[in-house]
Specification:
By secondary structure, the protein is of the alpha/beta class. It has helices at residues 52-69, 82-91, 104-112, 121-130, 133-138, 162-168, 176-188, 201-216, 218-225, 234-247, 256-261, 265-273, 288-294, 335-345, 348-355, 375-387, 395-398, 401-404, 410-420, 425-441, and strands at residues 43-48, 72-77, 98-101, 140-141, 144-145, 148-154, 157-160, 192-194, 279-283, 305-308, 320-328, 392-393. The protein folds into 2 domains: 43-154 and 321-390, 3-Layer(aba) Sandwich (D-Maltodextrin-Binding Protein, domain 2); 164-318, D-Maltodextrin-Binding Protein, domain 2 (3-Layer(aba) Sandwich), CATH 3.40.190.10. InterPro entries: Bact_solute-bd_prot1, SBP.
């Protein structure tokens, strides 16, 4: 995640950021986008994981909301541990109005704690007409819609340097085995095959999920995501064994296993697209493009490109997604203004503001694909929309945060341990089951 955790995290210290200018206006309460600045004098506090270029681009959306409604905005960074930080803010009487939640499991937790305001009729109408039903389902708890998916991620994309593949004499692969073979050719030509961001455990869950979805199929994927299937199932061991063929091959990993465990997500992108390339490929979601473009000046489609995460064992290629759901907290001081922000975020206009900046996909079907700034991102967005209800949401984002969304514990840590030593997939599966059983029970 981006989830999860979406990328470019700066830590768990709360950091108030730019306060948009407050404008005053009169008139009655209107939906965001009305332009009469009726929310003047209010400040909507938004909490989320974003930083760097992602936050810079989201701030443009918040500034447009301010321009239309008069409501100022204040963004606070939560770091990885969204549930812990937001929970402490609520208990301390300083709840944000809106939270951008990067995990389905956290959204469900918040709803069951009674922290969330059901979304307004306006937002429900927009979601019902402009989004595939899968996004409504993931944003709902007990048939009540609490979350609006503003930013989505296509997590079945492998990004590469066209120069690196060309020098190695290989083309974008169409199967997992071909990908490893192509990686070895890249390594033989002087670069490591993959930069793996093992320091960020969420990236490893994404690796596993793509392999598992393709190899085991969507029914078992759904069952494992809901813990109706145990992690000790043979299908999990098989997927870990497949992933281990990559993790244990020092020829394929930039810096070997130790190097991967000391590489965070931004660092993995830098190792492929930075000034001193160390690897030819990096697996992660479409948001890699934003980092490659904004931080390293790469032209998407020319200097940086992607191929779909290839199918495993001759099976269908996976389509794994993720996303950030905007929710409104009941305890927020300006929750009504916060709901107006969500009404604005549900509009194609809001999505278009970020889309043209890059590093962003919208699940809103009403967004014109022409809003995206390059053909590669446009193709990725089209693929995500076309997948409709067949897309599968990031599995770890569906799990309780203690298992699938917390640094240093659960799935994140256990897959880091597996990257360090992938010799015993069965033992890793057993450890995952122990952690999952406790988290789902709690």
């Amino acid at each position: 995640m981006m989830r999860r955790r979406v990328p470019l995290l700066t830590g768990s210290v709360l950091l108030p950021l730019a306060l948009a200018a407050t404008a005053c206006g009169g008139g009655g309460d209107v939906s965001a986008g009305g332009g009469d600045k009726s929310l003047g004098g209010q400040t909507v506090t938004v909490a989320g994981v974003w930083s760097g270029s992602e936050l810079k681009n989201f701030q443009k959306v918040l500034d447009a909301f301010t321009e239309k409604t008069g409501a100022a905005t204040r963004f606070v960074s939560t770091g990885d541990n969204v549930s812990t930080v937001v929970g402490s803010k609520i208990e301390g009487g300083d709840a944000p109005d809106v939270v951008m939640v990067p995990q389905v499991g956290v959204l469900q937790q918040f709803a069951r704690e009674g922290w969330l305001q059901p979304l307004s009729k306006s937002v429900r109408t927009s979601v019902g007409s402009d989004y595939a039903s899968v996004w409504k389902n993931y944003g709902s708890v007990d048939d009540t819609l609490y979350g609006l998916y503003f930013k989505a991620a296509h997590k079945s994309t492998v990004w590469y340097s066209p120069t690196a593949l060309e020098q190695a004499g290989v083309k974008p692969p169409t199967s997992f085995d071909e990908m490893l073979t192509a990686g070895r050719a890249v390594s033989d030509s002087g670069l490591a095959a993959f930069a793996v961001a093992g320091q960020d455990g969420w990236t490893l869950t994404d690796w596993f999920e793509n392999v598992y979805l393709s190899q085991a199929g969507p029914e078992k994927y759904d069952a494992l995501a809901a813990h109706r299937l145990k992690w000790t199932d043979d299908s999990v061991v098989k997927a870990l064994t497949t992933l281990g063929t990559l993790f244990k091959d020092k020829q394929l990993l930039a810096g070997g296993q130790k190097g991967a465990l000391n590489t965070d997500f931004p660092g993995s992108v830098e190792k492929v697209f930075g000034p001193k390339p160390e690897a030819g490929m990096v697996y992660e979601g479409d948001f890699v493009a934003g980092v490659a473009k904004d931080q390293f000046g790469k032209e998407i489609g020319k200097d940086a490109d992607f191929f779909p995460f290839p199918g495993v064992d001759g099976n269908t290629a996976p389509v794994v997604s993720g996303g950030d759901a905007a929710v409104v907290l009941k305890d927020g001081k300006h929750r009504a203004a916060g709901m107006k922000l969500l009404e604005y975020l549900a509009s194609p206009e809001a999505a278009a503001l970020w889309a043209k900046q890059g590093g962003f996909l919208s699940p809103n079907k009403k967004l014109d694909l022409g809003a995206y700034g390059d053909d590669v991102t446009r193709a990725t967005a089209k693929s995500l929309i076309a997948a409709g209800d067949t897309v599968r949401f990031d599995m770890s984002d569906q799990a309780p945060a203690a298992f699938g969304g917390t640094k240093g514990v659960g799935e994140w840590k256990l897959l880091q341990d597996f990257l360090r030593d992938p010799s015993d997939p069965k033992a890793t599966a057993a450890a995952l089951e122990t952690a999952a059983a406790k988290a789902y029970k709690d």
